[in-house]
């Protein structure tokens, strides 16, 4: 069974939700080390969990041989993170609107919407070799 | 996430503790909710006081419980919604779906109204 691997500000995990807590502990630990307030930490942690879940389920199709990679860095103005999978990409323009009446009671489909709501900038770069999502939260 | 639950005057009180982010812990909450439903429990309160945060997986579990209970003439209510979860419910417009209460006692009392 493969395990999480941590190198500096980067963690990679096999594609199973079993390692979601490992990613969360890693990211929150780094954010606290940066001295960021708890509310922003929670927003970032929620966003990371959304994208890692998507990477596991949709990007890598829960294939544990494929990995999800999360990176984090900070400058004086913002924290910037990436979540990368080894899937075949997707079209973010084809996502349903979770606020539409017909979608409100669906149990899935609001992850990226939540990330876009909590983060200041979200860039989705799909490709046939995987999807890389870069998201940024300004430090206020 | 850990989960404790009890029955008070025929009303189920579920108390998750920690973060609801997906994976086996989230499955625990989902399965317990539906286990109560299968045992003909129709009135459930989820006390969110000890939930640090949840993501859309957690919201999906709440929606699943809400719709399943509603379809069986029951109700799922939320108590002690933290600011972070309140914010999520508002962002996703789910604040228009769920009945939320400032305390478990208020949520229990609402079943009598």
Keywords summarizing the entry:
heterodimer, A: alpha+beta, Heat Shock Protein 90, B: 113 residues, Transcription Regulator spoIIAA, 42% helix
Can I get a quick summary?
The complex is a heterodimer of chains A (140) and B (113). Chain A is α+β, with helices and mostly antiparallel strands.
Task: Give the topology.
The complex is a heterodimer of chains A (140) and B (113).
Chain A lengths: L4 E3 L2 E5 L5 H14 L4 H22 L7 E8 L3 E7 L26 H8 L2 E7 L2 E9 L2
Antiparallel strand pairs in A: 1-2, 2-3, 3-4, 4-6, 5-6
Helix pairs in contact in A: 1-2, 2-3
Chain B lengths: L1 E7 L2 E10 L3 H15 L4 E5 L3 E4 L1 H16 L3 E5 L3 H9 L7 E3 L2 H7 L3
Helix pairs in contact in B: 1-2
Please tell me about this protein's structure.
- The complex is a heterodimer of chains A (140) and B (113).
- Chain A has helices at 20-33, 38-59, 111-118; strands at 5-7, 10-14, 67-74, 78-84, 121-127, 130-138.
- In chain A, strands 1-2-3-4-6-5 form a 6-stranded antiparallel beta sheet, with helices on one face.
- The mean pLDDT of chain A is 96.
- In chain A, helix 1 (20-33) runs antiparallel to helix 2 and helix 2 packs antiparallel against helix 3 (111-118).
- Chain A has 140 residues and is α+β, with helices and mostly antiparallel strands.
- Chain A has a single domain (5-138), classed as Histidine kinase-like ATPase, C-terminal domain (Heat Shock Protein 90).
- In chain A, strand 5 and strand 6 form a beta hairpin.
- By secondary structure, chain B is α/β, with parallel strands linked by helices.
- The relative contact order of chain B is 0.17.
- Chain B has a single domain, classed as Transcription Regulator spoIIAA (2-Layer Sandwich).
- The mean pLDDT of chain B is 95.
- In chain B, strand 5 (75-79), helix 3 (83-91) and strand 6 (99-101) form a beta-alpha-beta unit.
């Amino acid at each position: 069974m493969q395990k999480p691997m941590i190198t500096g500000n980067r963690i990679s995990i096999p594609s199973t939700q079993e390692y979601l807590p490992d990613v969360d502990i890693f990211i929150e630990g780094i954010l606290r080390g940066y001295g960021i307030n708890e509310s922003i930490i929670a927003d970032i942690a929620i966003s990371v969990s959304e994208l890692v879940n998507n990477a596991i389920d949709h990007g890598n199709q829960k294939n544990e041989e494929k990995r999800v990679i999360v990176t984090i860095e900070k400058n004086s103005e913002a924290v910037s993170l990436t979540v990368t999978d080894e899937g075949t990409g997707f079209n973010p323009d084809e996502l349903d609107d979770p606020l539409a009446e017909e979608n409100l009671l669906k149990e899935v489909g609001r992850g990226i919407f939540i990330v876009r709501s909590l983060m200041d900038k979200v860039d989705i770069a799909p490709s046939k070799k995987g999807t890389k999502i870069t998201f940024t939260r300004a430090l206020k | 996430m850990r989960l404790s639950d009890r029955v008070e005057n025929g009303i189920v009180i579920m108390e998750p503790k920690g973060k609801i982010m997906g994976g086996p812990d989230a499955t625990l909450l989902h399965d317990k909710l539906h286990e109560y439903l299968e045992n003909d429990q129709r009135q459930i309160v989820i006390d969110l006081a000890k939930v640090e945060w949840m993501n859309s997986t957690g919201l999906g579990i709440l929606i699943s419980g809400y719709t399943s209970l509603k379809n069986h003439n029951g109700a799922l209510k939320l108590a002690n919604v933290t600011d972070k979860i309140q914010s999520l419910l508002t962002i996703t417009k789910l604040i228009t779906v769920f009945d939320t209460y400032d305390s478990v006692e208020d949520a229990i009392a609402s079943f009598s109204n």
